[in-house]
Design goal:
Number of strands: 4
Strand order of the largest sheet: 1-2-3-4
Shape: flat
Number of helices: 1
Helix content: under 10%
Length: about 100
């Protein structure tokens, strides 16, 4: 995770760090959505696209979609002092100074 700042459902702008808001989105598939973002900092002006991918199921649906096959994983609780697991889609782990 890149810092602990809360953005209230917004994503930080990759350029200036201000909150960027979702302006619109389009569903590509039942598990993939593209969301168009706009930076709230008028001096920055960045607009971009983020991908939202549903990767796995933690609690089964009471009304499952037969066209969707997601792997089921158990819920995980982080033990005190345990290291943060690396996301499955990251190729490398950045040192804390490089993550900023």
């Amino acid at each position: 995770m890149l810092g602990m700042k809360r953005y209230g459902g917004r994503v930080p702008c990759p350029h200036c760090g201000s909150a960027s808001a979702a302006r619109s989105s389009r569903g590509v598939s039942p598990t993939y959505r593209e969301t168009y973002l706009r930076c709230s900092n008028l001096e920055c002006g960045w607009v971009g696209v983020a991908s939202i991918i549903i990767e796995r199921t933690v609690v089964q649906s009471a009304s499952p979609n037969p066209r969707v096959a997601l792997p089921v994983t158990a819920t995980r609780r982080k033990a005190a002092g345990a290291p943060t697991p690396q996301p499955a889609n990251d190729d490398q782990v950045l040192a804390p100074a490089e993550a900023l």
